[in-house]
Amino acid sequence: MMTSAMFRAAAMAMVLALSFSACQAQLSSTFYAETCPNALSTIRTSIRSAIARERRMAASLIRLHFHDCFVQGCDASILLDNSPSITSEKFVIQNNNSVRGFEVIDQAKSAVENVCPGVVSCADILAVAARDASEYVGGPSWTVRLGRRDSTDASASLASRDLPRFTDDLRSLIDLFENKGLTERDMVALSGSHTIGQAQCVTFRDRIYSNGSDIDAGFASTRRRNCPATAPNGNGNLAPLDLVTPNSFDNNYFRNLLQRRGLLQSDQVLFSGGSTDSIVNEYSRNPSTFSSDFASAMVKMGDIEPLTGSAGIIRRICSRLN
After folding, report:
1. Contact 172, 181 (CB under 8 A)
2. Which residues, other chains included, contact 241 with Cβ-Cβ below 8 Å and sequence gap of 6+?
3. Catalytic residue (choose from 67, 148, 205, 261)
4. 271-274 long-range contacts, Cβ below 8 Å, gap at least 24?
5. Which residues contact 2 (CB under 8 A, 6 or more apart)?
6. Would the annotation count 242 as a binding residue?
7. What is the CATH number of the domain that holds 137?
8. How much helix, strand and coil, in percent to the nearest 5, is found in the chain?
């Protein structure tokens, strides 16, 4: 006999399956083939130029897409500035002075508007930019499904609730991702994007001064050199998430976790005696498996609750409503 808890779980699974099937049917890799055939090449040129100027931007663009999709779906709500009718998501604790790359998306949008005005959404540009960023730094590529439309609102409250924090434990992370229809394996694969990019001292200070058993002593000592113990001194000082190959997309992130050299607490919990240890082990040994799973997880993430058809709008400027 099905219990109420089992019924709720089954109902949720059905809703997620139907939602995923619906967005698969509505999004298409050829969405702009007739209305803006040069859209993807125009975006790619803009994104590659931005990363050529600053390698770190690749990580920032992947993260920007992620932080968009986890808040009311992949709708470019994260790009909206404060206005009389909008409370921006940019200033919640998980985003403030942290999420970046807005000007790069603006530049790509401007370039596309010059080619075909009012056709390509900011949400689709975010999705394409993340793919192009991964590919540029040696990571996997994937076919981006397109046809998302832009939101007419943002939600700071949902951003605060739904975005992971660097202090989260494993159970909290698993729950956040499962709530978006993503599995533990998806979560670990997506976390592997931390093989590139940097983090601020304020996000890892407690970990490197904890003298805990889950951090390598030599690694902690090295990281302390540019991260003073007393806040707010050095809060914004940066350190690479992967000390070994910080500018290349590879599987060293997972090798670091095996050696207790995850920079953020939310990184190291993926290899801490819990249910994700085996996945971390697998990715540390098989870079091709990680690469394939990362690409699949990015496609799956890009399908979270898109606005399609007549829903939403196509913003002419990504940071504000038309």
Report:
1. no
2. 59, 194, 195, 196, 197, 198, 199, 253, 263, 264, 267
3. 67
4. 272/170, 272/214, 274/170
5. 10
6. yes
7. 1.10.520.10
8. 50, 5, 45
Is 65 in the active site? no
Query: Which spans in 239-322 are helix H?
Result: 252-258, 265-268, 277-285, 287-302
Predicted confidence (pLDDT) per residue in 171-207, tens digit: 999 999 999 999 999 999 999 999 999 999 999 999 9
Q: What's the full length of the chain, in residues?
A: 322
Is residue 80 domain-resident?
Answer: yes
Q: Respond yes or no on whether the N-terminal peptide bond of residue 232 is cis (omega within 30° of 0).
A: yes
Q: Is the pTM of this model over 0.85?
A: yes
Would the annotation count 113 as a binding residue?
Answer: no
Residues contacting residue 277 through CB under 8 Å, at least 6 positions apart: 270, 271
Q: Is 73 labelled a binding residue?
A: yes
- Helix (H) or strand (E) segment spanning residue 240: strand 238-240
Which single residue is written with the structure tokens 């992949």?
Answer: 74
Residue 37 labelled as part of a binding site: no
Residue 242 lies in a domain: yes
Q: How confident is the model at residue 281 (pLDDT cuts 50, 70, 90)?
A: very high
Structural domain including 102 reads 38-163
DSSP 8-state assignment for residue 188? H
Type of residue found at 279: I
Number of structural domains (the chain) is 2
> Is 65 annotated to bind ligand?
no
